[in-house]
Task: structure prediction
Amino acid sequence: MNPRVLLCVLSVVVLMPLVAHAESGSLFPDEAPVIARLLDDGIAAEAVGFAAGAEARYCWAARLGSVEGQYRLGRFYQTHPRPGVGSTVATTLLSFAAQRGHLAAQRRLAGRAPGRIDTPACFEQPLDLAVIKTLGRVISRHEVQRYVAALPVGRRSHAQMVQRLAPRFGVDPRFALAIVRNESGFDPSARSPRNAMGLMQLIPETAKRFDVVDAFDPEQNIRGGLAYLRWLLDKFEGDIARTAAAYNAGEGVVMRYGGVPPYPETREYVERVLGFYRATRHVAPG
Result:
């Protein structure tokens, strides 16, 4: 067997027992946490037109044995031709996914089988997640609209509510989306083991502080979360990293450390917010 194919098969066996964190807010809750994160970020990168970032993350997920990753990477190569990547690579990846029951991959293959096994060059490269970087300029509204339009219908309606309400609190809708995407993946029924609730994952103390009676009511939750974001933006003078860190870990922790605290979860959270928003300073709506 081709060693690269064997790597995919062995990875499936290793990763199957893993499950996603309940509070990850991923669109792929049945995947292992690291794979769910790669797929989420790959979709976000593809939606905003960042092909290299999408390819890298889909490739990671595929190499780690994810059937969704194999499908996404195969479809990506079909729709985004890359230098040195032949059509047989896309067909091979879709075939891997189709053989493991992925219906969309089966439809894309339409009965075609690869003439030969041909895996992408990225399978041989070092795994480097430092592809999507903060660009210093906020993500464009057009790119955000493409991202929102690609969401499932139910989640899309909640993302649109965030966009509509955020300016009323003086919060850039793009920043608010970055927060909600990380907190719940636009799921209004989300509840974390720490009792954070709803779309913006309000803990009971924060809900009470900002007059939220029902934290599972989407509009109440969003309004409370936006009011808190506005308060944090004022406190940290529009600094996106410190504001996001405070939303995740609490403003007291950020003040105590004088910036983003050395907690792996919080640092990863901040990186994901910056990776979506792209700018380090808040841009006032309008």
In short: Residues 1-25 have pLDDT under 50 and may be disordered. The first helix runs from residue 3 to 15. The CA atoms of residues 63 and 186 lie 28 Å apart.
